[in-house]
Amino acid sequence: MDYTKTLKRGENVTHYRNTYACIRLDYLQDNVETLYQKVRKPFMAIIKANAYGHGYQQVANVLKDNPHISMFGVATLKEAIDLRNIGIQQDILVLGAIPIEDLDLVIHYDITLSLFSKDYMNEIKKLYHHQKTVKVHIKIDTGMNRIGIKSQEEFEDILTHCQNSIFQVDGVFTHFATADDPLQKEAYQSQIDMFYDIIGQHSFKYIHCQNSAAMMYHHDERSNLGRIGIAMYGIDPAGEECKELKQVMSLYTRVAMIKKVKKVNV
Ligand SMILES: Cc1ncc(COP(=O)(O)O)c(C=O)c1O
């Protein structure tokens, strides 16, 4: 194993033991480029859960200057604030539900929230007491069955309420449940059809639905932003070996001892 050479490259190293995770931030950039060459649209980099365990600070710091990354996506408000606190200036969308009581933080840190139901919208309106508008992306649930509205009526209703209001609708999005499964192409198709049926002819700054698998195994022209997660970290979404992507994290250890043991029949 090329242990010392890896250390010299200045990558993340855990000290005091011979086992460590090596994070290749240059591979991260290569993967972004590979995915960009496939879909040729800007990306929201998904760096929730400590950037899928790769270290959100280091990951965000290299991605913030990548010309293909237009914004960041995280799961919680805490993760969004952490990104602001390390100087990330791009828009940050919280993909999950932000507690209404934390609305002041949303405004203070200029965070974009997912608007996922009429009740949630009304709750925000009730509590709101700021001058600035609240940036939102409307979440449509087309089959993942997480948060999100499920009908065109509800969508139109929310849009109407958002016009000339405290809300600034910057985007609309959905999330696929099965884009990584070649046996479930129909489920993917029904989700994307439902997404565009619900949006109708409305246009938005950002229309986004493609996660890594959707970008790698399917084609979509209308969405204008891709959300890259697992593939950016170099992992094939279907769990196959993938020559196109470079695995960003590798685990190394130094073998302490090799010994022969007797076979035991149990
Ligand atoms: C709403 C949403 N979009 C995109 C992603 C990124 O998905 P992937 O890692 O499959 O690219 C996630 C990850 O959980 C997500 O929750």
Structure description:
The chain has 266 residues and is α/β, with parallel strands linked by helices. The protein has 2 domains: 43 residues, no CATH class; 210 residues, Alanine racemase (TIM Barrel), CATH 3.20.20.10. Helices cover 35% and strands 17% of the residues. Helix 9 links the parallel strand 7 and strand 8. It starts with a helix and ends in a 14-residue tail after the last strand. The structure holds pyridoxal-5'-phosphate (PLP). The site of pyridoxal-5'-phosphate has 12 residues, from helix 10 and strand 9. It comes from Allocoprobacillus halotolerans. Its cofactor is pyridoxal 5'-phosphate. One of its GO terms (molecular function) is alanine racemase activity. Keywords: Isomerase, Pyridoxal phosphate.
CATH C-level class of the largest domain is: Alpha Beta
The level of helicity is 25-40%
Distance between the termini: 35 Å
Rg = 21 Å
Principal-axis shape: globular
The description of the largest β-sheet is: 8 strands, parallel
User: What is the H/E string?
Assistant: HEHEHHEHEHEHEHEHEHEE
| Content of β-strand | 15-25%
CATH architecture of the largest domain: Alpha-Beta Barrel
Main-sheet strand order equals 8-7-6-5-4-3-2-9
- Class of secondary structure makeup: alpha/beta
